[in-house]
Amino acid sequence: MAFQLATATRHMIYSGDLLHFDGLLWNRVFAVLMSDLLLMARPDQEGYLSVMQDPIILHAIDHLNVNGSTENEFSIVLTPTRGESALIFQAPTQDLKSTWGHVLQQRICASKAQLIIDNNLDNIV
C-alpha cells in the first residue's frame, strides 16, 4: 500500500530501535512514531530505511499494554478491523519502554481526538 509520508500535518515525534515479535522470532526494527502513525522499518546496508509493513494508524489502536511478560515488553492492541490483534515489542531498557509508553499513549489520544474533531467538522453544513 502506498502512502504519503510527508504531509503538512504529519511530523516525526520519536524513533528508536525495538524488538518486534512476529509470532515465532524477535526481529530488530527501527520504529518511527509520526504524529498520526507508527512505522516499522529496517535499515539496509547503505543506511536507508525500508518500511517493513503498512503503517499503523494511531487512531486504529484500541489500547496500549505496558505490562508485558518481561520488564521491557509492551504491546499495542489494535481495533478488530485490522488483521492482527496485537503487536508485541521489547525496548532495550526499562527507561526506553517507559518513554515509548508515554509518547505512544499521548499520540494515540491526540490522534483519536483529532479524528473526532475532523468528523464533527465534516458534519457542519
Automatic annotation (TrEMBL):
Residues 11-109 form the PH domain. Pfam families: PH. PROSITE patterns: PH_DOMAIN. This is PH domain-containing protein. It comes from Capitella teleta (Polychaete worm).
